[in-house]
Structure formats: structure tokens, C-alpha cells
Amino acid sequence: MRTYLIDSLILAMCFTAPSTAWAQARSENAEARVYFEEGNRLYQEAERASDAERPRLLQRSLEAYVDSLRIVRSRNALFNAAVVSEALGRDVESFNYYSEYLRIEGLAEADRQQAEARLEALRPSVAIVRIESVPGGGEFWIDRRDLAPLGITPAEVAVEPGAHTVWLEREGFLGATRSIEVDRGEDTNLAFALEARPPAAEPLTELPPEPPYETPTRRPRLRNAAIGTASGAVATAAVGLGLSIRARQLRNDYNDAAAIYEMTGDPDDLARANALADRTDRFNIAADVMWGTTVALGVSAIVLYALHRKRLRQDRLKIDVTASSRGGFASATWQWGVRP
User: Comparing C-alpha atoms, which of 117, 188, 115, 136 is closest to residue 157?
Assistant: First the structure.
């Protein structure tokens, strides 16, 4: 039962995919036909309209043909777009539409002769650029690099007289750019010799050898800790000394204030003496804390340095002992010149 379901799903996918693509293509063709028929209707109205109304209808007809060509590059839409562009005096666009129309394979001989005759009649009013490349098959742009390519070399394209910039690209080759100056009614040949793109660098198949592993040297952490702690002790002692000096000055100020109060009995003098006494007590307490911290940091620095020297002596002396049934062997190694 499971195998039957899988086979059914595979068959459904096989039939559904082509049906979906066919339906999408049919929808696109139908949409292109709507624009094409709209262009025909507007062109017929333009033929019957007055001279003032005719350009507007022709412009709308050309827009409808262009919308149809955006969907499908049909030969009928190309020819009609060329005819309407010619009627509007847009000779460059008309020439290029005729050129693309003539590149279609399978044209009837009468249709081809008619298009060639119209194209030749436009040559005196446009500037022609013949673009070739070695090798051929390159895509080219003129003046607008952000748009779709105008064609594939070799090709003949009409442009307005004046200065133009031509870009050409082909897969596997470096792009090329040329600037040209063209005149009305003249043909300009532009040939590109494409340079092959250098091959990309191949990825490394093997990793480079890793550098030999080196045992990191042991950093004297205990010594550094001892130095840092000793520096902290010195800084704390300096703060404690400053606090003690300030407390002594405040004590002298208090004694002077108390002497003044004994002579005057003024309550303000008493308040000032009490305030000085409080400040003196606070500075004395802070100084005592700093001196206690100094002692603790000093003792810690001494202990850390002692541990550092002890570890250094252990690292200096290395004793190797080997024992077997035949006897034992001991060796001692002492490192000289190790900085403590």
C-alpha cells in the first residue's frame, strides 16, 4: 500500500509540473496578445484621426506594443512597433526594431524584403554602429549599463549622433569599454579583442604545517603579586600619614578653640570647639584604618615574596630517581642564574 502511494505521488508530480509550465506560458501569451490587439486598435484609430489627435494615439499604440514585447518578443509586435516608431519620427528605435525583426529565423521572403526596404530607408537619418568582438557572442550596452543588454555580437545598432560609451562582456573574458563619436548617416565599426579572464586561485588541498608546540614559561605570579601588594601598602601608608598629619592639625585647632571658650564662655566658641573635636576624631579613625591596612598589606607582601622564593628554590633543584632490580640511580640538577 505504501509503495502504491509513493508511485502515485511521483506520477502526479510528473504530470503536474509540465501542466503548470504550460499554463503559465499560455497565460503569458494571452496577456501579450491583449496588449498586441490594443496596439492594433489604437493604430487603426490613429489612421482615421485628425492630425492633432494622431500623435497621441500613435504613442499609446507604441506603448501597447512595447508592453506586449516585454512579455513575448513576437515578430508581429516587433514589426508593428517599428512601423509606429517610424510614424512618430523615432528613427533610432524604428531601425533597431527592424533589425531585431530581421534576425528572426523563418521569415517569409516577402516580409523580409519589406522590412529590409524600410530599414535601408532609415539609414540616412541615423548613426549606425557595427559592433564585433573576438571571440563573438559578447553582450553589449550603449550609454546605459543599468539596463538590459542591447544585443549579442556581431550586431548592428542605430544610435543618435554624438558621443556614446559602449560596454561589452562575455563569460570567461574580461569586460571592455570604448568611447565613440558618431555622425548621422555614417557607419562606425567597433571591434573588441577580448582578453581571457585569468583562472581563479585554486584552494589549498593541504594545510600548512603547524609550528611546534612550545611549553609556555611560567610567569612569576607570586613575585608580581608581592610587588603589587607592597606597592599598595606604601600607597596606603602615605594616605594614613596624610590623615594623621591632618588630625594633628585639627587637634591643635581644637585646643585653641577650647582655650578661647574658657576665656569667653561664648556658646558659639563652644560649638566651634565641639565641631573641631568631632572632625579630629573622624580623621584619627580614618588614619587608624589606613595604618591597619598598611600593616596587613605589608605582611601579605612578605608572605607572598617568601612563597615565591620557596617555589623558586624548588624549581632550581630537580631530583630524578631511577630504581630497578639491579639497583637505583639518583641525579640532582641545580639551575644557576635564575632571577628571584
Answer: 188
Each residue's pLDDT tens digit, 188-235: 999 999 999 988 777 766 776 776 655 555 556 777 887 888 888 888
Give the whole-angstrom CA distance, residue 277 versus residue 251.
7
Q: Which residue has the higher pLDDT, 263 or 155?
A: 155
- Of 49, 65, 66, 69, nearest to 57 by C-alpha is 49
> Where are the extended beta strands (E) located within 147-260?
151-152, 155-159, 162-169, 176-182, 187-193
100: nearest Cα among 89, 85, 185: 85
d(CA 29, CA 21): 12
3-state secondary structure of 266: coil
Predicted TM-score (pTM) of this structure: 0.53
User: What is the spatial distance between Cα 114 and Cα 281, in angstroms, rounded to a whole number?
Assistant: 118
Q: Are 143 and 165 in contact (CB under 8 A)?
A: yes
Sign of the torsion formed by the C-alpha atoms of 153, 154, 159 and 161: positive
Q: Strand 187-193's sheet: what is its strand order?
A: 155-159, 127-134, 187-193
* Nearest to 72, CA basis, from 36, 40, 39, 103: 36
Handedness of CA 119, 96, 70, 17 (dihedral sign): positive
CA distance 153 to 145: 16
Closest CA to 179 of 171, 190, 194: 190
Angstrom distance (rounded) from CA 289 to CA 302: 20
Half-sphere exposure of 333 (CA within 13 A, CB side): 5
The sheet with strand 162-169 has its strands ordered as 151-152, 139-142, 162-169, 176-182
pLDDT one-digit tens code per residue, 244-263: 898 888 888 888 888 888 88
CB neighbour list of residue 212: distance below 8 Å, 6 or more residues apart = none
